[in-house]
Amino acid sequence: MKGLVIKNTGSWYQVRTDQEEIFECKIKGNLRLKDIKSTNPIAVGDFVEFTAIEEKVGLISGIYDRKNYIIRRSSNLSKQSHILAANLDLVVLVITIRYPETSTIFIDRFIASAEAYNVPACILINKIDLYTEDEMQYAEALKTLYESIGYPVFMLSALKPDTFDTFKQFLTGKTILISGNSGVGKSTLINAILPESLAKTGEISSYHNKGTHTTTFSQLYQLENGAKLIDTPGIKGFGTVDMEIDEISHYFKEIFKTSKKCRFTNCTHVHEPGCAVLSAVENHQISLSRYQSYLSILSDFETGKYR
Ligand SMILES: Nc1nc2c(ncn2[C@@H]2O[C@H](COP(=O)(O)OP(=O)(O)OP(=O)(O)O)[C@@H](O)[C@H]2O)c(=O)[nH]1
Ligand SMILES: [Mg+2]
Ligand SMILES: [Zn+2]
Questions:
Q1: Euclidean distance between the first and final Cα of the chain, in Å?
Q2: Residue 15 β-bridge partners
Q3: In whole angstroms, what is the distance from residue 83 CA to residue 42 CA?
Q4: DSSP assigned state of 108
Q5: CATH class of 2-63
Q6: EngC GTPase domain: which residues (predicted)?
Q7: CATH level 3 topology of 245-302
Q8: Which of 95, 129, 163, 188 has the most ligand 1 atoms within 8 A of CB, as the residue to mutate?
C-alpha cells in the first residue's frame, strides 16, 4: 500500500492512506536508505510503500523519490542532521516582532536555506494584535523589504480569524512546512485555520514548565482546501547545509542579481574594487540588514563552522 507519512515520533511513523486510514508503522529492518547521515531516514511528507501486518499496524518497505526536503543540523558543528519535512511546495516562516523577537539574521538564514533547497518561501508576521504603533511600523517595513525582494509577506494574528483569509487562500492545494522560532505561534495558527479543532494545541504539544505548549514532533494536518500543513518544533538556528561558500550570494536574490555588475566574476562583495553589491548597500538599494546576514553566513564558512 502507498501512504503519506503524517507524523514521526522516533522509530514510529504514522502513515495515512488515500482512504484516510491511519497506520502506525515501523521501518522494515533490511530497508536500504540512501540518507544514512540523517537521524530520521523517513520524514513527514514522505510517500512510502508499506504492508499491513496487523490492524492499523504496518511495515514500511520502501520510500518514493522526493521532490525536495529540508534538513536541519542539530547544531552548527554537528554532523548529525534531521530531515524536517519532504515534498514541499512552500515553507512559511512565522516570525514575531516581539514575544519573542525574531532576528533578521535568522529570517535571512532561513530564507537562504529554503532557496538552497529549492523550496519557495514566504513570511508570516504573527501576533499583530500585540504590537505598539512603532512595532507595527517596523513590521510594515519588514513587509516592504521582503516583498521587494520577491517573498510574499502576510501579517496577521492567530487569535483573530478575520485576519487570515488571504493567507489561507494562498495555501490552497500546497504542502507547506510551518517553521520559525519557538513561541511565535505556529501551532496556534494551524489550530485556528483547521476545519474542526483537529489540532488542539494541548493535544499536539507537550506542556512546558514555563506554561507554554511546545511542539516536539512534526505533524501534518490537512485543510479542506487541499492544503497540507506541517507543524514543526520551534528552531533556534537553521544550519546552512549543502551550501558552498561561493554559492551563498546565489541564495540572496537581490545580492545575486546585483552581483552580475561586479567588476570581478569571483567577487565576494566584501572588499573588492568595482563591487556593485557594496555600492548598492551604500546607496540603500540593498538593505544593510540583508547584507549583514550575508556576511554572517560568509564568516561562518571562514571560521570553519560549516566545514
Ligand atoms: N496575542 C497573541 N498570542 C498568540 C498569537 N499566536 C500565538 N499566541 C500565543 O503564543 C504562545 C505560543 O504559541 P504556540 O502556538 O505554542 O507557538 P509555537 O510556535 O507552536 O511554539 P513551539 O511549538 O515551541 O515551536 C501561546 O501562548 C499562544 O497563545 C497571536 O497572534 N496573538
Ligand atoms: Mg508548536
Ligand atoms: Zn561584488
A1: 41
A2: 5, 23
A3: 8
A4: H
A5: mainly beta
A6: 86-236
A7: Ribonucleotide Reductase Protein R1; domain 1 (1.10.40)
A8: 188
Is 292 a pocket residue for ligand 1 (Cβ < 6 Å)?
Answer: no
Eight-state DSSP code of residue 7: E
State whether the beta carbon of 214 lies less than 6 angstroms from ligand 1: yes
Residue owning grid cell 513590521: 139
Residue nearest atom 32 in ligand 1 by C-alpha distance: 127
* Contact 68 CB / ligand 1 (< 6 Å): no
Q: Against a cut of 0.85, is the pTM above it?
A: yes
124 CB within 6 A, ligand 1: no
pLDDT tens digits for range 47-96: 999 999 999 999 999 999 999 988 876 555 566 777 889 999 999 999 99
Q: Give yes or no for residue 213 CB within 6 A of ligand 1.
A: yes
